[in-house]
Write a structure and sequence with these properties.
Elements (H helix, E strand, L loop, with lengths): L4 E2 L5 E6 L2 E4 L2 E3 L4 E10 L2 E3 L6 E3 L3 E4 L2 E4 L3 E3 L12 E12 L3 E6 L8 E12 L10 E6 L8 E11 L3 E6 L8 E5 L3 E3 L5
Parallel strand pairs: 1-4, 2-5, 3-9, 4-10, 5-11, 9-11, 10-12, 11-13, 12-14, 13-15, 14-16, 15-17, 15-18
Antiparallel strand pairs: 5-8, 6-7
């Protein structure tokens, strides 16, 4: 089993490159922030003075592609202390594909509101499939399990394609309210094949 790439609680883990591919990879930043940014041309403005770090893409001229496959996990859940909160996740690229039971996850066990999952795909976001027996669904999941409010899922895309059992979920399994899901697409939204 592959060892995770992780940072200490509350810190930022950022992967920035031309293209990003996670094949069974695990990224962990408990109560912190994970940023994935595929940039082919231009620059990113980064401020480490804030917590979590702040990333700005105003000077990014062309994004690259991001792929998560083979049960990859990007996770900023809060699991150890009721006084903290679930973290946040940012994913920025041109074509972004999440498949084969890969999950982008924030779970909140605490009393504070969780952070958001924000995805910007300038051309296409594909969220596809499950594991072979169908009990692990590919997707974006922002969940609260405690008293704290769940975080939002915010998708800014050209086209969105969700299919083959994948899901986009903002849910509560505790006493806290769930977050919201917002989708802003400049072209099409397609949800097919028992997705939810």
């Amino acid at each position: 089993e592959m060892a995770p790439l992780s940072v200490t609680d509350g810190q930022t883990l950022a992967l920035v490159g031309n293209d990003i591919r996670l094949d069974g990879g695990i990224l962990l930043a408990e109560t912190g922030h994970i940023e994935l940014a595929a940039i082919e041309q231009g620059t990113i403005e980064l401020s480490s003075l804030t917590s979590p770090w702040e990333f700005k893409y105003d000077r990014t001229e062309q994004f690259g592609d991001i792929a998560l496959m083979n049960r990859s996990l990007v996770d900023t859940s809060q699991l150890s202390s009721a006084t903290t909160r679930g973290g946040s996740i940012g994913i920025n690229g041109r074509d972004i594909q999440i498949e084969e039971a890969s999950i982008v996850l924030v779970q909140n066990l605490g009393t504070q509101p969780a952070g958001a999952i924000h995805v910007h795909a300038s051309r296409q976001l594909d969220v596809l499939g499950t594991n072979p027996i169908g009990d692990v669904l590919t997707g974006f999941k922002n969940q609260t399990i405690g008293e704290g409010t769940g975080g939002n899922i915010e998708l800014q895309v050209g086209n969105l394609h969700v299919a083959e059992g994948a899901e986009i979920e903002a849910a509560t399994y505790g006493s806290g309210n769930s977050g919201n899901i917002s989708i802003e697409a400049s072209d099409t939204i397609e949800i097919v094949g028992f997705s939810q």
